[in-house]
Amino acid sequence: MADPVTRAGAVIHAVLDADTLQELAGDADSEVRAELARHPDLPPSVRDALAVDPALSVRVNVFARPDTPEHVRAQIHTSVHELSLSMADPSPDADDETVLQWYQDVAAPTELRILRLQWVTADPLPHIDSPYVSFRVSAAVSKALPADAVARLLDDEEEIVRLTMARTAPHLVDPATAENIERRYRRRDKFTFWWDYEEVLTFPSEALRRFAIDPEPRLRSFAPRDPNLPSELAEKLASDPEDRVRRAVAPHRNLPLPSLFRLLSDSSEHVAEAAGASPFLPVERMEWLLPRAGLWPP
After folding, report:
1. Spatial CA neighbour of 44 closest among 19, 61, 26, 69
2. Which of 7, 209, 241, 295 is the least buried, fewest Cβ under 10 Å from its Cβ?
């Protein structure tokens, strides 16, 4: 506690007598105050004082406490959003601590959304209609929710709540709800999101074959999940204008060989690689490919 380097990390383990409380609550380092806001033995009076701390990162930790009164939690939520929007950029000559605090404050609204609260997951039912996204997501992680609560979270207005609930209980997602979730999903452009590469939801063959001619590229890319997809549909998908669709169908066992051979020289490297890795590529074509890929002779 006496060492500035380890002080913040030690706070959670401190015995909060009156002197220690006064010292930590008045610490100039916002990280120390933020850690104090997480302490399980924090008195209500100090908790409520930290709820209006100048550093929004401190307020976020008070927001996440199970013993924070709902009216205080609501005030924190409102204040964090309002203050983060009104903050001026730090001056060019600001020191590193000031700049870091500014970044933390600007990021505070996002922190409120991405909190994952174990105490909510442990007792999820009171929180499935919470006004806070992080609370509903934390509830959706629970494997002990009744079917009606699962259905409500699968239809939540926030995508991350729907996806989290689907990932937690895919066996409770009927085909119509699964299709609704996938149709409402919007791919992230700036980063790879876990929903883009995890096959969480399953569809019957009739739905997958219907997807093969769907206007939505994402759904067309699901069609090759049907192991018995008719060859004429596979061939059509191999000429799809969307890379993701051609890539998905490239290794399918019912894809006619002429289409598979054509995908070997696809304009998309990912499609060509998927075609080259197909287990249904004839051995003689594999042998033809290896020297051109610089993989043979060894």
Report:
1. 69
2. 241
Alpha carbon of residue 244 to chain centroid? 21
Structure tokens at 112: 């409120």
Task: Identify the CA nearest to 263 among candidates 272, 251, 255.
Answer: 272
CA distances from 295 to 217, 278, 287, 298 (A): 34, 17, 10, 6
Q: How far apart are CA 201 and CA 175, in angstroms?
A: 9
- CB 46: neighbour CB atoms within 10 A? 19
Looking from the CA of 122 toward its CB, the CA atoms found within 13 Å total 4
Are 208 and 222 a contacting pair, CB within 8 Å?
Answer: yes
Question: What token pair was written down for 205?
Answer: 């063959």
Element (H, E) at 175: helix 175-184
Q: Angle, nearest 10°, between helix axes 147-154 and 159-168?
A: 140
pLDDT tens track for 3-13: 989 999 999 99
Strands of the chain (E only): list them. Answer: none
Q: 131-168: per-residue pLDDT in tens?
A: 999 999 999 999 999 999 999 999 999 999 999 999 99
Structure tokens at 61: 């930790």
What's the distance, CA 236 to chain centroid? 33
CB 47 within 8 A of CB 68: yes
For 213, residues 6+ apart whose C-beta sits below 8 A from its C-beta are 220, 233, 236
